[in-house]
Amino acid sequence: MKWTKSDYLFFFDRWVIPMVAEEYQLDEEKALKLFIDSQTYQLLSDQTTKLFRESPLFIFDMFKAEQETGNPRNSSYIKNYV
Protein backbone atom coordinates (compact mmCIF):
# COMPACT_ATOMS: atom_id res chain seq x y z
CA MET A 1 0.00 0.00 0.00
CA LYS A 2 1.35 3.40 -0.96
CA TRP A 3 0.79 6.21 1.52
CA THR A 4 -0.56 9.55 0.38
CA LYS A 5 0.29 12.93 1.88
CA SER A 6 -2.99 12.97 3.80
CA ASP A 7 -2.25 9.48 5.20
CA TYR A 8 1.04 10.42 6.73
CA LEU A 9 -0.19 13.81 7.97
CA PHE A 10 -3.06 12.00 9.69
CA PHE A 11 -0.56 9.52 11.16
CA PHE A 12 1.57 12.33 12.61
CA ASP A 13 -1.46 14.24 13.84
CA ARG A 14 -2.58 11.14 15.75
CA TRP A 15 0.82 10.77 17.47
CA VAL A 16 2.17 14.30 17.79
CA ILE A 17 -0.97 16.19 18.86
CA PRO A 18 -1.31 14.33 22.19
CA MET A 19 2.37 15.07 22.92
CA VAL A 20 1.86 18.77 22.13
CA ALA A 21 -1.28 18.86 24.28
CA GLU A 22 0.51 17.27 27.22
CA GLU A 23 3.72 19.31 26.92
CA TYR A 24 1.92 22.66 26.67
CA GLN A 25 -1.14 21.84 28.80
CA LEU A 26 -3.58 22.42 25.93
CA ASP A 27 -6.72 20.65 24.85
CA GLU A 28 -6.25 18.65 21.66
CA GLU A 29 -8.09 21.18 19.49
CA LYS A 30 -5.72 23.99 20.49
CA ALA A 31 -2.73 21.65 20.20
CA LEU A 32 -3.82 20.70 16.68
CA LYS A 33 -4.12 24.36 15.65
CA LEU A 34 -0.72 25.18 17.14
CA PHE A 35 0.89 22.25 15.34
CA ILE A 36 -0.79 22.91 11.98
CA ASP A 37 0.24 26.58 12.13
CA SER A 38 3.89 25.68 12.81
CA GLN A 39 6.94 25.71 10.55
CA THR A 40 7.44 22.09 11.57
CA TYR A 41 4.09 21.14 10.02
CA GLN A 42 4.96 23.09 6.87
CA LEU A 43 8.20 21.11 6.59
CA LEU A 44 6.34 17.86 7.26
CA SER A 45 3.78 18.75 4.58
CA ASP A 46 6.53 19.40 2.02
CA GLN A 47 7.15 16.04 0.38
CA THR A 48 10.63 17.10 -0.75
CA THR A 49 11.88 17.11 2.87
CA LYS A 50 10.94 13.43 3.33
CA LEU A 51 10.20 14.11 7.01
CA PHE A 52 7.39 11.58 6.83
CA ARG A 53 10.17 8.98 7.07
CA GLU A 54 11.04 10.14 10.58
CA SER A 55 9.43 9.11 13.84
CA PRO A 56 6.72 11.10 15.62
CA LEU A 57 9.29 11.76 18.38
CA PHE A 58 11.62 13.34 15.82
CA ILE A 59 8.78 15.57 14.56
CA PHE A 60 7.72 16.48 18.10
CA ASP A 61 11.31 17.41 18.96
CA MET A 62 11.41 19.69 15.91
CA PHE A 63 8.13 21.27 17.00
CA LYS A 64 9.39 21.74 20.56
CA ALA A 65 12.63 23.31 19.30
CA GLU A 66 10.56 25.66 17.16
CA GLN A 67 8.44 26.69 20.14
CA GLU A 68 11.54 27.28 22.30
CA THR A 69 13.90 28.85 19.76
CA GLY A 70 11.75 29.92 16.82
CA ASN A 71 13.43 27.43 14.48
CA PRO A 72 12.53 23.73 14.10
CA ARG A 73 15.99 23.09 12.68
CA ASN A 74 17.37 23.57 16.20
CA SER A 75 16.02 20.13 17.09
CA SER A 76 18.55 17.95 18.88
CA TYR A 77 17.79 15.21 16.34
CA ILE A 78 18.79 17.42 13.44
CA LYS A 79 21.89 18.74 15.20
CA ASN A 80 23.00 15.14 15.74
CA TYR A 81 22.36 14.32 12.06
CA VAL A 82 24.67 16.96 10.68
What descriptors fit this protein?
mainly alpha, 0% strand, 82 residues
Number of helices: 5
Number of β-strand runs: 0
Largest sheet: none
Secondary-structure element pattern, one letter each: HHHHH
Q: Which structural class fits the helix and strand makeup?
A: mainly alpha
Shape: globular
* Low-confidence blocks of residues: none
Mean pLDDT: 89
Percentage of β-strand residues = under 5%
Number of domains: 1
Whole-Å distance between the termini? 32 Å
- The helicity comes to 55-70%
Give the C-alpha Rg. Answer: 12 Å
Describe it.
This protein is mainly alpha-helical. It has one domain (12-81). The chain contains 5 helices and no strands. The chain is globular, with a radius of gyration of 12 Å. The N and C termini lie far apart (32 Å).
Question: What secondary-structure arrangement, pairings included, does this model have?
Answer:
Layout: H1 5-24, H2 28-36, H3 39-45, H4 56-69, H5 76-81
Helix pairs in contact: 1-2, 1-4, 3-4
What's this, in brief?
The chain has 82 residues and is mainly alpha-helical.
